[in-house]
């Protein structure tokens, strides 16, 4: 489910999930089929998830919702706990191939801007380090590097994300 707003709307206006054809658009963007498996029986903290996404939203010229791409994605997950259970490391590497019609080939009754990512490979690499000072309190830091490689649609994208946070468990339930 996606929701977008523009033209000076407030940051929380996306939660109204409106389609007013002036400055907001929302809807179910894609559906996907996933399979998650553990490829090596003796490495229980490594798993792979493969997903195929199909765009399902109606094309509306001039009103961007999401990338109109078929996506084949493979995610690789690894985690380990160390320091007598006081620390946990989690890593994820994704390979998401976006494919479909190029922006320049979209017909006039389609939104060509929703085809920006077609024929590209998105590769986010994410790591998290968690510390458990007590049974109810967690402190964590995370980092992600994302690269979108162009394979014929003349669009690339790169960013680095850094963050930290904490959580406190209020009750056992």
Short description:
The chain has 173 residues and is mainly beta.
Describe the structure.
This protein has a seven-stranded antiparallel beta sheet with strand order 3-4-5-6-7-8-9, with no helix packed on it. By secondary structure, it is an all-beta fold. The two termini are 29 Å apart. The protein has no helices and nine strands. It has one domain (35-168).
Question: What value does the Rg take, in angstroms?
Answer: 20 Å
Amount of helix: under 10%
Number of helices: 0
Spans of at least 5 consecutive residues whose pLDDT stays below 50 are none
Number of strands: 9
How many domains make up the 3D coordinates? Answer: 1
Order of secondary-structure elements: EEEEEEEEE
Largest sheet: 7 strands, antiparallel
* SS content category: mainly beta
Q: Which outline best applies?
A: globular
Q: Beta-strand level of the residues, as a percent range?
A: over 45%
Mean of all residue-level pLDDT scores:
87
Task: Give, in spatial order, the strands making up the sheet with the most strands.
Answer: 3-4-5-6-7-8-9
End-to-end Cα distance, whole Å, is 29 Å
List keywords for this structure.
173 residues, mainly beta, 7-stranded antiparallel β-sheet, two-stranded antiparallel ribbon
Secondary-structure map with pairings?
Layout lengths: L1 E4 L18 E4 L2 E8 L8 E10 L14 E13 L4 E13 L20 E12 L5 E14 L6 E12 L5
Antiparallel strand pairs: 1-2, 3-4, 4-5, 5-6, 6-7, 7-8, 8-9
């Amino acid at each position: 489910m996606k929701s977008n707003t523009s033209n000076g709307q407030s940051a929380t206006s996306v939660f109204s999930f409106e389609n007013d054809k002036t400055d907001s658009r929302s809807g179910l963007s894609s559906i996907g089929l996933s399979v998650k498996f553990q490829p090596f029986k003796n490495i229980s903290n490594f798993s792979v998830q493969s997903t195929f996404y199909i765009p399902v939203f109606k094309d509306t010229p001039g009103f961007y919702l999401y990338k109109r791409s078929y996506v084949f994605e493979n995610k690789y997950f690894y985690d380990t706990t160390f320091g007598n259970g006081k620390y946990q490391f989690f890593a994820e590497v994704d390979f998401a191939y976006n494919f479909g019609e190029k922006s320049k080939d979209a017909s006039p009754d389609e939104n060509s801007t929703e085809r920006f990512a077609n024929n590209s490979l998105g590769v986010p690499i994410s790591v998290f380090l968690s510390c458990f000072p007590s049974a109810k309190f967690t402190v964590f830091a995370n980092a992600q590097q994302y690269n979108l490689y162009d394979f014929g649609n003349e669009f690339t994208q790169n960013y680095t994300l850094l963050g930290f946070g904490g959580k406190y468990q209020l009750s056992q339930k």
